[in-house]
Amino acid sequence: MTSTSPLATAPATAPPARRFRDAMAAVASPVAVVTAMDGERPHGTTVSAFASLSLTPPMILVSLDNRSRLLAIIRRTGRFGVNILGTHQAGLAAAFARPGADKFADDVIWSLSADLPRLPGSAAWIVAEVDEYVTAGDHTVQLAHVLAAEPGEEGTEPLTYHQRLFGTHTPLTT
Fold this sequence. Notes:
mainly beta; three-stranded antiparallel sheet; 15% helix; 41% strand
């Protein structure tokens, strides 16, 4: 049988972690840059493990690697921003996904909004305050109350990650 997928999937004999990664590649995820301030210095990282959690009260969840410098900052400050990226920001998603301390150094345009780093042109902006930290495997999930939420400019298509590629949602025609 010939595969039409652009990905080489793991054979059934592959390690469980690789098969899990391949299975999760089939899930389209939103792409966001989570940000926080460490004194005067902005920090941020790209995440795809982000979701709406509750409407009453408004809550979201974000998952960060336990070794993340950003997670340590959020634990100290208790607050973070979520820049839900638009399709025109795939370069930012890639830049903030790379390892390294100063992801804002490469001519990244940003401003403070609610004392948190905000990336202009995002599909949406959320300010959150952590209610609870839940350690889950090699990540920690932050369950957070939404303090402010703003949609981006009308017509900004959200960036998604699917089959290890950036893209966007295409509505079905009926």
